[in-house]
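Example: Alpha-1,4 glucan phosphorylase.
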Amino acid sequence: MSIVTNPDLPLPPPRFTDAEHLASSIIEKLTYQVGKNSIVAQPHDWLRAIILAIRDRIIDNWMESTTRTYEAGSKRVYYLSLEFLIGRLLRDSISNLELVDQINEAMGKLGVDLAEIAQLEPDAALGNGGLGRLAACFMESMATVDIPAYGYGIRYVNGLFRQEIADGWQVELPENWLAHGNPWEFHRRESSYEIYFGGKVDIIEQRGAEPKYVWKPAERMMAEAYDTPVVGWRANRVNTLRLWSAEPIDPILLDKFNAGDHIGALQESTKAETLTRVLYPADANPAGQELRLRQEYFFSSASLQDILRRHMQQFNDIKLLPEKVAIHLNDTHPAVSVIEMMRLLIDIYGVEFDEAWELTVATFGYTNHTLLPEALETWPVPLFERLFPRHMQLIYAVNAKILLHARKEAGASDEAIRQISLIDEGGERRVRMGNIAFLGSHSINGVSALHTELMKDTVFYNLHRLHPDRINNKTNGITPRRWLKECNPKLTALIRETIGDDFLDDAEKLQALNDVAEDSSFQERFEAVKRENKVRLSNLVGERLGTRIDPNAMFDIQIKRIHEYKRQLLNIIEAVALYDQIRSHPEMDWVPRVKFFAGKAAPSYHNAKLIIKLANDVARVINNDPSVRGLLKIIFVPNYNVSTAEVMIPAADLSEQISTAGMEASGTGNMKFAINGALTIGTLDGANVEMRDWVGAENIVIFGLTADEVDEARAKGHNPREIIEGSKELSQALSAISSGVFSHDDPGRYTELVGGLYDHDWFMVAADFDAYAAAQREVDAIWNDKPAWNVKAIRNTARMGWFSSDRAIREYARDIWRV
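Written out as structure tokens, the predicted fold is:
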């Protein structure tokens, strides 16, 4: 059946945005799309109706943005990321549409509490931590600064996992965020593509031409698109987040079903359903490794097929690809896209190999997020070749081209050749995804000044020598809309009243707050806002954990993925040492302090899960010891996500950014805390270095070894046992932990964890302990001088505007994407 459309038919008029029309629209959605009237409607019914009414207003801008891009023939950015930690979208969308007052008035007319309803929206379980939240901030900023863009990822049914704490241990449960549907998204059935796995490659000889390679796959499934509009500030542009869901080509094999093999009849559905169910399936076993690799190829292939289809549909010239398309790889997870692009250009679009490589390199950019070699991803060659036989051929062909150039034209040594190769030959032969991403991109960027320089000297040393013009720095940023305006409305109102509204469009205009930092009246109001935010967090802790905390205490917060290099362990050990000091010296004037922890550990990461258990064991003992007199409490907040962060970050007095120097690429939590008026205690790692430069060394508390000193200590083989035995506080704290003071049910629970500090202390926990403890006492001294503390807190907010993701995106657009 063909459908004839008339392009001259007018579009419907834009939806009205006054309170009366919004209220009417919400009732209409409640009636005709939810199927309820206001008398029987439940809170979740109201939530859906409100979202649908707001979505209508977004669509008007979405259509206009798309039409504007198409008619101008603009270059588009395509941002490929395995994670997009977008959080709740309702409040974000209302704010960026500038409908906050109107929607509140409309809900007042309807007698519905918007704040209460908005809390029902589930957090989209599409990410894990900083990588995914950065991608979400970047999508919002691309729309804000008017860059046409698509984000591409996976529509996970369960995402990472929902964390519960049972007897102090992390328990992983499915995160059923899609259980009741997602009213923000649009299913695009027409945007579906076949994805292949396995099989063989046939060679077809062609007279007078290069042979043609045809991939004959053993497995096929469909990738189907779901689109979510991403609204920029003041709805300047609305871009698209396109997420892929795996669907079987044959949902049920009827011959097997009718033969009684009911499970076998559904095997294709099961395979497809499994592929997009969970983010980062545990890869401690071969099946988990294969599933992760399948996920990465699945979304990469679907995205590239979609990009090339759109490009050819509009421009009909594959050679214009770098002029009209910029594809960006957010870490190594989508690195297989480089080889998939080669396959599509050569096998589908008939481009010669050398030209295909030139087009590929000119089109791709790559952001590296880690200095940990194991995080660059490598895959066993047999696994890769079994799943992707054609891609393995192309990897060998590209490798030959690269290595011949490196040997003949760059004079690379044998060792350099080994490091540059796309195949790691040391032991089990493995495909190096980091090398593929680097060599297949014209730009490779780090995410802080320190990280970028370390990349050149460590993980990409030989690749940088081969291509010294490719590595550049783009320091991370955060969207001030989500991480100041929306999560901290009281502070935003105070700032607007004090310096006006210019900072809403240009975060660097926050600098005007420097003029009032020492004004006692402003300090009092700033401190009052902080206390309100602390009361809100105290209430959340009371509701979730049943624990009472004093909002007058210092709120000391470390929230991030649980990992040994992020050194939650250092924080816990210092808490144990402080506990001993408070009990031993009750006559001293101790600062009341609440130490908050939150974050998830990878399911197969034993030590990270043990650190969570230790935090909860220490909390149980300290929080119930009357001799502490409430001067110290430890709180582990379960199931850390974006919505929880939006409550915890504005309430923080002290931000813990204490990773081992040289191991945190950048961090963005450090930026979120500081812009909300928290002081940072941290090492000179990642973006902490640049933050110190911007906020002033006097307004941040820095301690510990530098990255160079860490490298030197490791190279010389430092003696952690000697360090521990030379520190009375550290040795006593470790003795208490290892001897079972905090684990009466299992006295040996932490013996190996503590033993690792004595044996090698790779993450420099013992090496930095005394400096960290001294820095914490420096923090106490500042806290006791409230005017001094307030000045430093205000200056942190005033001087963090440069760390906006708007600035970062403008740099990407100018230097990498050429948009």
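The chain has three domains: 13-72+90-122, 73-88+123-475+811-817, 480-803.
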